[in-house]
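Re: folding output
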Amino acid sequence: MSISFKCPACRTVLKVGNEVPAGTKIKCPKCSAVTVAPVAEKAVRRPDFDSEEEPVRPKRSRVRGDESDGRPSRSLSFWRRHGLLVGFGGAALIAGIVVIVILMSRPPGDEKGGAAVGKLQTTTLKGPEYSPTREAELAAERQRGRDKLAQEEKKALRELANLPDRAKHPQCVGSFFAPPGVLPGDFTFSPDGSLLAIRNRSNINLVNLRTGKHLRTLTGHSQSVNGAAFSPDNLWLVSAGGDKSLRIWEVNTGETKDTITANGGVWDPVFSPDGKLLVYKTESRSERGGEHDVRILNFSSREMRAVIKGLHTKLLFSPNGLFLCTESDMTLSPEMSVTLALWDPNNGTRVRELKLPGIMWSRAFSPDGWRLAIVCQLIKDPAVKSRLFIWDLAKDERTVSDFKDGLDWVAFSPDGKWLACNFSKETTLRDSHTGKVLHTSDIVGRFVFSPGGEIVFVLDREGCHIFPTTALGGTKEK
């Protein structure tokens, strides 16, 4: 085999043997110019022009730019030998990190609810921040307001003792017995506890809770009333009807001041604590099926602030106005799981969510708005019928308690120190932080506490029954 190259002077093709060392001086036979033999591995072998031999080109490896004998480079050989090991190691590292994150995100449980902690799934997005200094100032302000209302409620208890009707319980002060078909969910209390609205089909009856007297009946809806809400200043009452309308009533006169028309039925109107926002749920029917959304309205200007798409029920504002709570994303499975979502009412952005392993039965905010009690009814677990979650929104911590009996209703006391848990045969009053049972009462029903803490309204299928808070077992602080 020979190596061919050209003379740099006359371009004559020169041929030398493969055994000639690189750098040997070669004299051109045509022009007598002296040139140097090229390096053998870098030379391009050309065929003998006197023969029919095809040129043999150097093999090219898979590494770009490497013209060698065809063997892969050391770097490529390394990845071929160790690539599989490195890949398995990286996958194991990622799996370990995921497991650690899941274990750290599991919420803590109490002595009764530790087994249920693993079923709790939460998602926390960017939301309002907790300020201890600010909350201490607000707590003092709320206490001053409760002290003022407590004096009015003590006078009201004496007036309500003259009501002609009362429940059989010996400590019941008086009762408002409901017409047939009226359920506990048809009662709406004003924020200061002085007024009661009772929905009865397409009408609304207003009752003064300070005197027990019937004020007036509001008529105007052509179909059933699906919800009602008092404004924080007690000047307005908003009712939602199946006739695709929201009616705004003046409480003092009973006149309709405005009507808002929707595309479908309207449900569950609620005011923000400052009275600036009105939130309600709508449902419209079309050829594509039902369309649901939650609408956030500026109450004074009637301008739409935001719309939350999807099926959301059980609207509830936190007392501090930072959260709008809804039940959404129901999964039609044997467990009937639902998602409890918290929204920023100013822009309709979801900021927190909690996956519940069952049907949400009841929920209540603490007076400061930073704790949320949730009652969940389990279907699949035969050993546990009810589960109570206490969600600390400031610390993003959850405690869980399981009950063999059905827990129907929860309510915080006005000072937020204890929690009333209503079962089918009794009501337990618990420390809202530790869950310790403080007292057990034979008064059962849906508890609604007056803002001053002197009166508790108990709702059942018979109507609304009025008790002094001391009837629950002396839990009110002296």
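--- second protein (sequence, then structure) ---
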Amino acid sequence: MSLEEQHYDRILMTYKMSNLNDYTVVIRKDGNWWIGWIEEVSGVNCQSLTREELIKNLKEALAEAIELKLV
């Protein structure tokens, strides 16, 4: 897939702990898979078969990163 053919979705994910932070999520479809990552947090990335599952998994991965104070 060439760069011109790749479609990226950028959505704003808000995660609330003790304060409100905004994170940029980059999502793209690659064959049968949805691939996504959080731009501001290195290592928080996932892949799933559906967009909805990908967003759910990214939220869980971000929550774990925050809990482990990787953010």
